[in-house]
Amino acid sequence: MFSSSNVAVVIPSYKVTKHILSVIKAIGPEVSNIYVIDDCCPDGTGDFVKNNCDDERVRILRHTDNQGVGGAVMTGYKAAIHDDVDIIIKVDGDGQMDPSLIPSLISPIIEGRADYTKGNRFFDLEEIREMPNVRLFGNAALSFMTKLSSGYWNLFDPTNGFTAIHSNVAQSLPLHKISRRYFFETDMLFRLNTLRAVVVDVPMSAKYGDEISNLKISRIIGEFSLKHTRNFFKRIFYNYYLRDMSLASIELPLGIFSLIFGATFGTYQWINSANTGLPSSAGTVMLSALPIIIGLQLTLAFLGYDINSVPNNPLQRAKIHSRTMKNEGVKNGK
Length: 334
Fold this sequence. Notes:
single chain, 334 residues, alpha/beta, Spore Coat Polysaccharide Biosynthesis Protein SpsA, Chain A, 2 domains, 12 helices, 53% helix
């Protein structure tokens, strides 16, 4: 469907001079545009690439202040959209990602099965053993939190930065609102879900060498928890009350209310019984237990509905069809 002139790679660059040239060299001929974003790198990544790389596909974009990985990627997205590419790929400059996997990454988009694809390092159980334990545990925890906040229950490895997006979908995103720092990948998923875009995991391998990660779990755990909670409530409001309403829209508030009422009433009666020494009656116990049981069932019913509501109709098809009809209208003088 697409020729090489329709694919671009964005490489956010910050302290990656040791690996950036090998990353660029490994990018195949299926890519015609390579955007290296120097995110106010103290090592001068932009100048380093300019002086040591003769790949004609490379274009260097510079930030006068550090904007984080999300800010760098947004700059690359805007440049690629301006250059009228069809697919935009994001590859980190630290050498952890294998550019030879780009054809596999963009294949679901080319075939019209997805709007956005991302790598998943958890498909091969043998390779999981090579992953550092800290990263393994962190990704498992973050994956569950991301499922709740983004609504993509079919995805794993949410912090994986090896991604590809159809430019029509990228243009529909509120690029100025997407998180600029380490929450970028998971915030992208939340934003994509609000568009009802189809996201697909693509198996990949990861390399862990002498690269230095700037991500410290202790620094971001609080920030990530707050942002996941915010995105969860936003998503629920957008998808179940603002844009559409269904039985699930009733199940969730009733379930939460029943759980809170049952737990509160039961706790109060337990404390009262402990203070007076008098056992609670069977009716009192049931008045506490029944709302908890009903609330749990309603909440699980909502989760079941939410899990089955993962977007499966690619947005790029509608966008392409709309653009085609518009172009035909122009040609026909309409």
